[in-house]
Structure formats: structure tokens, C-alpha cells
């Protein structure tokens, strides 16, 4: 959670992901939406061209479709977060960050899965113009 979502904020967050969560990974696959901050220009702006491209090169971005059921899954997860963690008054930004981090850690440990039921065959039926 940040007060804003600028290119520089995104780049610093991702650098922290790479350096603290996956320091030994050569490549980190990341699923992201198409927000204008989610690209290499954010890293260049934050760290300069050479360092920015070095950090960005560790990531393999997988951009989500603009119109797809992945959005429903993200919205479902936000709903669970709201019901399990944010369903009370939290009096400071720091406390909100602390509570959200704890909830995320617990959620990740529980390894909740999503059963993806929209198959390629169903997509072909529903969107034949895209599979011509």
C-alpha cells in the first residue's frame, strides 16, 4: 500500500520484491495488469537507464487481458481482504500496512487456489471473432 501509485513507487516496490523476496532468482515471472506504470520506463525513471534496465531484466512480465475473468478473481480476493482484515476501523496508515501484510502472509501460507473453469474451448465458443 502506498499513498499514490507513480512509476517511481512501482519501480521501488518491484526492486524490493526482487532484492528481498527473491534475491537469488535470475528471472521473476510477474502477472500484471496494463497500468501505465507497469513497464521498463518506470525503472528507468526511478534508477536511471543502466540500473533501471538491469533491475527490469530480472522480471518476465505477463500482462493480463484488459477484459477477462482474471479481474473477477482479483476482485474476489479484495473482497476477502475486506471481510477478513479491513472490516473494522484502523486508525493509522502504518497499522493498515501492518495488518494487510499479516493478512497477506497468512493468505499465502494457506495456499488458497482458484479453480480456473473458463477453458480455451469455452473462449472459442464465446468469442469466435477472436479465434478466427
Beta-strand residue fraction: 5-15%
Distance between the termini: 42 Å
SSE arrangement, N to C: HEHHEHHH
Largest sheet composition: 2 strands, parallel
The number of helical runs is 6
Low-confidence stretches: none
Indicate the percent of residues in helices.
40-55%
Q: What would the principal axes of the Cα set say about the shape?
A: globular
Q: Which sequence of strands runs across the widest sheet?
A: 1-2
Count of distinct strands: 2
Could you report the average pLDDT, rounded to the nearest whole number? Answer: 88
Question: Which radius of gyration do the C-alpha atoms yield?
Answer: 18 Å
Label the structural class: mainly alpha
Task: Kindly summarize this structure in a few lines.
The chain has 132 residues and is mostly helical. It has a domain at 1-64. It is built from 6 helices and 2 strands, in the order αβααβααα.
Tags for this entry?
about 130 residues; mainly alpha; two-stranded parallel ribbon; 2 strands; globular
Overview of this protein structure:
The protein has about 130 residues and is mainly alpha-helical. Helix 1 packs across helix 2 and helix 2 crosses helix 3. It is built from six helices and two strands; from the N terminus they run αβααβααα. It has a two-stranded parallel sheet. The chain has a domain of about 60 residues.
